[in-house]
């Protein structure tokens, strides 16, 4: 994970996108994927427990990551190591490519490896990328199961030197200083609300919010949860932002949907240990402290439970996409 702070690396080391590597990856795709699916308009990244999103792809072709130069392996339960190419949406459908599992820096992958699939999507012509993730709610108004349409992010790792765009520019046409105040496409976000309306989704099932990216793999302490909430974040997760940055650099329109899989434990006030002991000494009854802990199993279970809703929403947004210009 040191690639983001070393400035003397060649582009292939620091950004994982040397033209030779990319040529090799594209060659493999060309050999496996039928021509009509080789240039998908939409890219999808499936978050934890959400790889079922791609189950409705028609004429689908799977390409295992191990066959693709530059791709690493997904090591997290709930993530598969394959790309799926196929058609999604009603009617003739739209060609899409879906990552059935993503890479996280906490797995030990370099940031350049984490975003390499997004670089590949850019190279094969993806215009719109739909990124999904599982996230913990910091905002107490967000119930577990809510899908949050992300409109902004807070990325402490980016601010402290863990930014996938650090290093030599991989393409001289890319801006050196990428503005990301508009990273989350307003028109795609609006399409999600139109889609939810057409699906008669309950109003509370969908919300808007700011995603905080943390490196993980530890979940947040209560104090960290309060800190991120005070900073303005609604949900917190361990992925997505590196992909968003690479996708914006590649010129894609970005949509991020976070599924709230758990509430981050942020007790309003701590039960003071001193008070508890004083209560015990006085011989009075003490209220038991409820020890809530989040687990990845819980995250995956929620993904399973809400996977179909996420799938219908994504498929409906695809139907509503304006024709390509
Ligand atoms: O890949 P995503 O962001 O959906 O996965 C979340 C973040 C961690 O990888 C994991 C924690 O349970 O779920």
Automatic annotation (TrEMBL):
Record has Transferase as a keyword: yes
Pfam families the UniProt entry points to: PNP_UDP_1
Record-level Gene Ontology MF annotations: purine-nucleoside phosphorylase activity
GO biological process: one example: nucleoside metabolic process
SUPFAM superfamilies documented for this protein: Purine and uridine phosphorylases
GO cellular component: cytoplasm
Disordered, as annotated region: 1-20
Residues that hold phosphate according to the record: 48, 79, 102-104, 134, 220, 239
Entries under InterPro entries matching the protein: Nucleoside_phosphorylase_d, Nucleoside_phosphorylase_sf, Purine_phosphorylase
EC number: 2.4.2.1
Residues the entry annotates as binding a purine D-ribonucleoside: 262
Pathway: Purine metabolism; purine nucleoside salvage
Domain Nucleoside phosphorylase as annotated: residue spans: 41-269
Keywords annotated in UniProt: Glycosyltransferase, Transferase
Task performed by this protein: The purine nucleoside phosphorylases catalyze the phosphorolytic breakdown of the N-glycosidic bond in the beta-(deoxy)ribonucleoside molecules, with the formation of the corresponding free purine bases and pentose-1-phosphate.
Similarity comment: Belongs to the PNP/MTAP phosphorylase family.
Protein name stated in the entry: Purine nucleoside phosphorylase
């Amino acid at each position: 994970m040191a690639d983001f702070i070393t400035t003397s690396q060649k582009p292939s080391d620091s950004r994982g996108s040397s033209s030779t590597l990319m040529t090799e990856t594209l060659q493999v795709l060309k050999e496996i994927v039928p021509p009509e699916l080789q240039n998908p308009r939409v890219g999808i990244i499936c978050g934890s427990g959400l790889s079922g999103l791609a189950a409705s792809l028609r004429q689908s072709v799977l390409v295992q990551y191990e066959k693709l130069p530059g791709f690493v392996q997904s090591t997290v339960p709930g993530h598969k190591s394959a790309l799926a190419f196929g058609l999604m949406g009603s009617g003739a459908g739209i060609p899409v490519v879906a990552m059935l599992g993503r890479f996280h820096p906490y797995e030990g992958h370099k940031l350049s490896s984490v975003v390499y699939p997004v670089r590949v999507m850019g190279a094969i012509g993806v215009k719109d990328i739909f990124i999904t993730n599982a996230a913990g709610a910091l905002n107490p108004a967000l119930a577990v199961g809510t899908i949050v349409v992300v409109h902004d992010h807070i990325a402490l790792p980016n601010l402290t030197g863990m930014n996938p765009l650090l290093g030599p520019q991989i393409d001289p046409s890319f801006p050196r200083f990428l503005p990301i105040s508009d990273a989350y496409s307003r028109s795609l976000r609006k399409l999600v609300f139109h889609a939810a309306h057409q699906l008669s989704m309950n109003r509370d099932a969908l919300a808007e919010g700011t995603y905080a990216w943390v490196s993980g793999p530890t979940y947040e302490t209560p104090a960290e949860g309060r800190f991120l909430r005070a900073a303005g974040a609604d949900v917190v997760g361990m992925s997505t932002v590196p992909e968003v940055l690479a996708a914006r650099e590649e010129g894609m329109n970005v949509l991020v949907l976070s599924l709230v899989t758990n509430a981050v434990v942020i007790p309003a006030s701590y039960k003071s240990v001193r008070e508890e002991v004083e209560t015990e000494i006085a011989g009075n009854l003490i209220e038991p402290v409820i020890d809530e802990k989040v687990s990845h199993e819980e995250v995956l279970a929620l993904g399973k439970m809400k996977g179909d809703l996420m799938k219908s929403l994504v498929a409906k947004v695809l139907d509503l996409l304006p024709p390509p210009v």
